[in-house]
Specification:
carbohydrate metabolism, seven-stranded parallel sheet, 329 residues, EC 5.1.3.2, 10 helices, UDP_G4E, UDP-glucose 4-epimerase, UDP-glucose 4-epimerase activity, two-stranded parallel ribbon, UDP-galactose 4-epimerase, domain 1, alpha/beta, Rossmann fold, 2 domains
Amino acid sequence: MTWLVTGGAGYIGSHVARAFLAAGIEVVVIDDLSSGRAGFVPDGVTLEQGSLVDKAFVDDVFARWASSEHPLTGVVHLAGYKYAGVSVQRPLHTYTQNITATVNLLEAMHETGVPSIVFSSSAAVYGNTPAEFVTEETGTSPESPYGETKLIGEWLIADQAVATGLRHTALRYFNVVGSATPEVSDTSPHNLFPLVFRALQEGKTPKIFGDDYPTPDGTCVRDYVHVADVAAAHVAAARKLDAGIPLDAAYNLGSGSGVSVREIMTSMASVTGIPFTPDVLPARPGDPARIVASGERAARDVDWMPAHTLADMISSGWAAALAASHSPS
């Protein structure tokens, strides 16, 4: 059993690759290293460096592994352009990286008989939903090219399944945080946790955008899940597909409970040992007051439940951020 992880040199992808290895499943990684890091790829894992947009490269990788001693039995597809806000300014780039790449991947899978795919989707497919508790039945209405490409990716895979019998599911992430190893940190310039960690390391004051929302403490409430739990969900889904067990088209990876931004800040100060009072800035347009996701369907079908606490998320993420700051790279 060998699974290909696209984007496997990224923050989430490298955690997924490590989780597969820990489960005794051989892993191959494709990554163009545009945002991933070769050093994030676990030891002993082959890194096929190149872009999924390059069809000749993708076809070559799949052809070589199809004739190897360990042919691919499935794909976890995480590679893509992931910055929702920036995607509004770069829609064509976003569609090329996320849709053209997925078409090339699906074609190569079909041509070489790879039967299963777990797709990395996103809460961005729901857009600025009025639903305070998001289930898989919540209406999809993406508000950025990034969110649109994730939804179209789900459609592409589902259509290919109708045409070819492809086994598939999509996992919709909400806020992925923390680290399972100090060797891998979240390097995003947009995510809350690395922004706060970076500010604390630089002696700056972290910021809260808006404190007059209709929530208990006035700040936005979000659903946070540890990256190790997200990685475990991919392994669980892959095992189900390998066993021929049908899964739904999409599952939310949610905790069912929310944490406010102010609660995050208070916990950050406690866990890091760096006291601070966050600066409060005006609310950003389009930020919903509360989004919390139900993980009940994933628990029912994939046997998945988040296992880490908020303190786990912060302490592990902080340890990885400190390790990264002392890394020669």
